[in-house]
Amino acid sequence: MRAIEVGLRFLVQQGVRYVFGIPAGSINAIYDALLDIPELTPIVAKHENSSGYMAGAYTRITGIPSICVASSGPGATNLVTPAANAWKQKLPVIFITGSVPSGKMGKGGAQELYAEPIFASITKMSRTVIDPNQLPEILAEAYHTAISGVPGPVHLAIPIDIQMTDIGERELPVLPPVQPPTMDMAAAQAAVERIKAAGLRGAILLGNGAKASSESIVQLAETLEWKVATTPRGKGAFPENHPLSLGIYGLSANIRASEYLNGNDHEVLLIIGSSLGELATSNWEPRLVAGRELIHIDYDQSELGKCYETQYPVHGEIKLVIAELLEQLSADGQDRSYASEAFQGLGEAAAASEQGEEKWNTLSAIRRLSATAPKNARFFLDIGEFMTYSIQNLLIESGQEFDIDINFGGMGSGIGGSLGAQLAEPTRPTICITGDGCFFMHGLEVLTAKEYNLPILFVVINNARLGMVYHGHMLQYKRCLEDFSQERVSIAGVAQSLGLRHAEVRSLDQLKSEHVQEWLSHGGPVVVEVIVDGNEIPPMGERVKFLQGATY
User: For a surface tag, which of 134, 159, 290, 299 has the fewest beta carbons within 10 Å of its beta carbon?
Assistant: First the structure.
């Protein structure tokens, strides 16, 4: 049996199901082996960069590692950006790149590249395999490294001759058990005591790491009667139609969230599952922590105290820590099992959207999408001006999901990511919100969605310019190059040429509930081009302030 086939069969044994990437000469042994391993499904993308975002989204949603492959040379370098995204998001994606034959290394082979050091700083392990007999064990080590401790991506460069070498019949490697992080019980107890002492003078800020514990966090917030805000990546961790919801804090913050978290109505801030970076904290806003004490819960100990002095750091698996807090609060007589019922109907629920005029523009289109989306929809956001409106104005309710690769997502990453999301949860409606600039970068992945019959609704906001760049320059420099805008191109026309169901929307009358329901029930991908002028200034002021601080 070829070395690469033994390695792939090991990954199947671990539950790996998808291989994302693009076939090429230096990895053709992998794709040939897939013909004999039906448990592994190849997803052939249109660009390696997109395939990496597909793999990342699938792994983030399912928790199951995925494989992403690319050729040597340019294929490998095209995976660097999604590998860095997986590194930032702590996703156990297995990146495999091909290489020239091991005996020809250093002799100038076509597309030869020493990829190991390139990936070293953005993976937990980056190695070149030069012994075919060790390939299965090295792949097993890479897998174990990816899922152990704080998860993260790994990378192996495998020369084509090493992949193809027959190593005979081999038993598959056996992995040691993965040890979950141990909860610091003393720290959890100290946090409980501080929570009780604060009474009603507390607030909660949720990051992406809180999403897997959403139900117990709702119970905790209702027990404490503390108001809750989320970071942009944490959006969806708490239902935004809940009376305790403040909406978003950080980039494109809701006014209510900023005023409350920067105000003086609480003395304790409970932070759950956030690294507290620039976009999560409105450029590390000093008022967020001024005059109050911080309780920070995270499964990655390196995040605790990294950005702000933290009086009560609690390391452990977030779901288990929240369960422990609830148990201790209950034991001390603070259990309020009636809370969910008590909060129903207490006035108007906190909305994510800031109200304004209902005229046709990007903002009103985003609000209409929010109002007409199914109650179990997943919104997958791309990067651009529309993103800032969406963060602020999509109202994510219980049962809905929100995804965005905001920390290291390139333009077009949301298009590829939405394919991975649909594969992860085939029965959940997926709505990808992207822009014309993103579409020009990676829009042909809608054809990949067609080829795999993935029923994704791609909503493309077409303002005929690089909107976020344009408005950023106008806010910062009061001028910009004409090149940031372009003659409008028909995105619907492009979709038509690809044989895709498509629609062109120019008003709210063309974006009603019945339209959205029809598009989502089509059974395959649908491209909806939303045509707007895009002259309104998007809610991106905090980002501009950060850039101004970096340049002046």
Answer: 290
